[in-house]
Amino acid sequence: MTWMRWAPAMEQALYDPDRGFYRRPEGPAGHFRTSVHASPKFARAVARLLLEVDAALGRPEELAFVDVGAGRGELLTGVLAELPGEVLARLRPYGVEIAERPAGLPSTALWTAELPRGVTGLLFANEWLDNVPLDAGEVDEDGVLRYVEVDPATGATRPGAEVSGPDAAWAERWWPVAEPGEVVEFGGPRDAAWARAVAGLERGLAVAVDYGHTAGRRPPFGTFTGFRDGREVAPVPDGSCDVTAHVALDAVAVPGLHSLWTTQREALRALGVSGGRPPLTLASADPEGYLRALGGAGEAAELTDPGGLGAFGWLVQAVRMPVPLSLEPLPGWQTLGA
Predict the structure, then answer these.
(1) CA gap 290, 137 in Å, rounded
(2) How far apart (Å, rounded) are the C-alpha atoms in residues 156 and 148?
């Protein structure tokens, strides 16, 4: 067996130029279903948020939409299709992704592996941070926190060296553990990645959407898992499946910015996505319209299902701008800082 810590194992499994999971031609949609694949209502809601950001910024001469972890451009394409011509004329859209530029992407979109700098607008990272590689640690029988090592070929794990330095400090601050068997996933690399992304905004709103947790609700035994062909599988970091871990969203938040946290259910409701059934009177007055509305309600219900996609966390941070009105703190929102 070949043993290594989780961060290099994830880096190799997901991003290796020759066999990394995210280099594969089918893209993420070939293996798991995200909000953007579930319904065009998700892109419509993001487009509405972009319009609100544009208004809050005073309709700048150039407005950026930065799709971080853009997959095969599904969200980027969907958002562009929802925008009025006046906004499109000022829009600078970016797809940030390591994979090759997908066919059919609008010619106005810049496809890049690098985060843009000095832009004004909306930066949106949908299920990006959960794939930023990170290490894990587990408390041994003597109460010592040790790194977890993994064999990339089999997914077997074993205890490694004692945790020290920045990871030990991060765990003490954000995810303290003491009992044998308790696991911590060291979020420092995610914190740094998000800080770099947000630093690219001259002014604007940064939104990270992911399965996540905050202090007091940390998972005691960790969250590493895998996805392949639409099924959840063991997180074997051999390049054959996605390898992911939930995000400590309160730790990720960049200090000094107005920051809100809520669930996707609450965020999408604030942006007009409702899973309510259409009135039955519509069924007799307009049967076809009723069926369309019923289908749309089903899609909205999936996006806001508290036991599914609705459980995603939304971290919202404002950079030199007010928070858009629809995202002002509502029941279910937490203010992380100011």
Answers:
(1) 53
(2) 10
The single-letter code of the amino acid at 65 is F
Token match 């040790």: residue?
Answer: 146
Rg (CA), the chain: 21
Residue 338 has pLDDT above 80, yes or no: no
* Residues 46 and 35: beta-carbon distance below 8 Å: no
Q: Rounded CA gap, 307 and 293, in Å?
A: 23
Nearest residue to 167 via CA among 138, 142, 194 = 138
**CB count, 10 Å around CB of 24?**
14
Would you give the DSSP letter of residue 95?
E
Pinpoint the alpha helices (H) of 177-219. Answer: 188-199
Asked whether 131 and 223 are in contact (CB, 8 A), the reply is no
Task: Name the nearest CA neighbour of 42 among 300, 312, 291, 292.
Answer: 300
Q: How far apart are the first and last CA of the chain?
A: 48
Q: For residues 159 and 242, what is the distance between their CA atoms, to the nearest angstrom?
A: 23
- CA dist 58 and 56 (Å) reads 5
Q: Report how far residue 34's alpha carbon sits from residue 271's, in angstroms, rounded to the nearest whole number.
A: 18
**Residue 30: both structure tokens together:** 């070939």
Assigned token pair, 63: 């407005």
| Cβ(127)–Cβ(209) below 8 Å | yes
CA distance 95 to 222: 31
User: Which tens digit of pLDDT belongs to each residue from 305-328?
Assistant: 888 888 999 999 999 998 887 776
Q: How far apart are CA 221 and CA 116, in angstroms?
A: 36
DSSP summary character for residue 278 = P
The number of CA neighbours under 13 Å toward the Cβ of 216 is 0
Average pLDDT of span 185-201: 98
